[in-house]
Amino acid sequence: MAFDPMKWWLRSRANIDEVQDRDIERSCRSKDAYRSEGEARSHAAMNGMSGVLFTYHCSYCDQWHLTRRKPPSTA
Ligand SMILES: [Zn+2]
Predict the structure, then answer these.
(1) Measured in angstroms, how far is the CA atom of residue 58 from the centroid of ligand 1?
(2) Is residue 33 part of a domain?
(3) Which parts of 1-75 fold into alpha helices (H)?
(4) How far is 40 from 22, CA to CA, in rounded Å?
(5) How far out from the chain centre does Cα 31 lie?
C-alpha cells in the first residue's frame, strides 16, 4: 500500500487527542472538582490540609482542583 501522508497525519492527530483525553481524564475525573476557589480551599481546610493542598483553576473542566504541588503562578 502506498504511503498516504494525509492519512498518516490524521492518524497521528487522533493519537495525540487520545493521549490528551487520557490526561484530562486523569487530572479531572480522578480528582474532586470545586466550583470556586473558596470551595476548594474550605474543603482542604476541613480535612486539615490547608497549607498542604493548593488550589488551581483547571482549564479543562473550568473548575477548581486541589494539588499537593504548589503552582508556580501563586509564588
Ligand atoms: Zn479539571
Answers:
(1) 5
(2) yes
(3) 5-24, 37-46
(4) 23
(5) 9
Q: Using CA of residue 47, residue 50, residue 53, residue 55, what is the dihedral sign?
A: positive
Task: For residue 23, give the C-alpha cell.
Answer: 490526561
Q: How far is the CA of 41 from the centre of ligand 1 (A)?
A: 16
Domain contains 1 = no
| CA–CA separation, 22 and 71 (whole Å) | 22
25 CA to centre of ligand 1 in angstroms? 8
Write out the residue range of the structural domain in which residue 69 sits. Answer: 27-75
d(CA 66, ligand 1 centre) in Å: 10
Single pTM value for the model: 0.60
Read off the pLDDT of residues 30-61 as tens digits, 9 standing for 90 and up.
778 999 999 999 999 999 998 899 998 988 88
Count of domains forming the chain: 1
